[in-house]
Amino acid sequence: MKKILVIGCPGSGKSTFARRLRDLTGLPLYYLDQIWHNPDRTTVSRPEFDAALGEILAQDTWIIDGNYSRTLERRVAACDTVFLMDYPTDVCLAGAAARVGQVREEMPWTEETLDPEFAQYIRDFAAEQLPQVYELLTQYGKNREIVIFHSREEADAWLRLYESHKACYTVENRL
């Protein structure tokens, strides 16, 4: 587990999971939102974004947090592990609403409201984005570890299990 994607609907907790995974593994974490968005709420050009992504993908280790469907196949092809947060829409909407007004490491600004267009994107995600995600995971899945969570509890349990196994491994290696 050296090149990891954390993907799923906005508001599903991708960034929270990715941070916890970074803290457990020590792998560098890259947020696609930080690469795409400028602090003034404009975006970089596609060539600039693609170049920055290429620099990350060329590294030996990484965790990349974010969907950005235009570049998803490129990232899935380059990774060895994918974590997909496939949560119910209402959970994702509540997650997105809960972070309004919060300073977030993964965003270069603080959201002041839940933008109606963004909320609609979340509502449409399962029908419009997930089929493409599953298609890519099926296409590339044979050579990658694919972990799909259907609830925050499943994701939390996986992290706890990983942490306990890591602790056991570390203790055994010290002896």
Fold and architecture overview:
- The protein is α/β, with parallel strands linked by helices and 175 residues long.
- The chain has one domain (3-174): P-loop containing nucleotide triphosphate hydrolases (Rossmann fold, 3-Layer(aba) Sandwich), CATH 3.40.50.300.
- Helix content is 55%, strand content 13%.
- It has helices at 14-25, 32-36, 46-57, 69-78, 89-98, 116-128, 130-140, 152-174; strands at 3-8, 29-31, 62-65, 81-85, 145-149.
- The protein has a five-stranded parallel beta sheet, with helices on both faces.
- Helix 1 (14-25) runs parallel beside helix 8.
- The two termini are 24 Å apart.
Number of domains: 1
- CATH level-two architecture: 3-Layer(aba) Sandwich
Q: Give the overall silhouette.
A: globular
Q: Please give the share of residues in helix.
A: 40-55%
Features:
175 residues, Rossmann fold, disordered C terminus, alpha/beta
Give the gist of this structure:
The protein has 175 residues and is α/β, with parallel strands linked by helices. The protein is 55% helix and 13% strand. It has one domain: Rossmann fold (3-Layer(aba) Sandwich).
